[in-house]
Design brief:
By secondary structure, this protein is an all-alpha fold. It has one domain. It has 7 helices and no strands.
Length: 153
């Protein structure tokens, strides 16, 4: 479920899932059995850089004229992010990296389209300002990130 949750976060905000996971792994320290993805995310440099990039993504999301999350280049980034966090979670669960990477990417794909549709509905039909819808999504990502990393122990 952690790979699904992290992948879903990647579908909402591509950099938030790796940022939360990186912070968690850097605090925990990479084990001797860490896979290369987990080692990369656990590095102190990665744990410092990813949150800054994730914050930039949160800001950019609110700007008019930004490409949709479901256009191919942006969607591919979200899928890659979901695969990355899924692979990193695999070792913690002692499961095959490839399987968890696929699970993370699939969750990112589903969530990208689901949240795109939900945000479109909220802004067009319910007349919720896009910036407010974005902040609500940010709150959901932050809550999920904190809960998922806390559950990882």
């Amino acid at each position: 479920m952690t790979a699904v949750g992290m992948g879903a976060m990647a579908g909402m905000r591509a950099l938030s899932a790796p940022a939360f996971l990186s912070q968690h792994l850097a605090e925990e320290g990479a084990s001797s059995k860490a896979n290369p993805v987990e080692q990369f995310l656990a590095s102190s440099t990665t744990a410092r850089v990813l949150p800054v990039l994730a914050l930039g993504e949160l800001v950019l999301d609110k700007l008019p004229g930004m490409p949709s999350r479901v256009v191919p280049p942006v969607l591919l980034m979200r899928l890659a992010s979901g695969a990355l966090v899924g692979a990193a979670v695999a070792r913690q669960k002692e499961r095959p990296m490839l399987g968890f990477a696929v699970v993370g990417a699939a969750a990112a794909l589903v969530t990208s389209f689901a949240l795109y549709s939900l945000r479109e509905f909220a802004t067009r039909k319910l007349h919720i300002p896009n910036i407010l819808a974005g902040f609500l999504e940010d709150a959901l990502v932050a809550s999920a990130g904190h809960r998922l990393t806390a559950a990882m122990g």
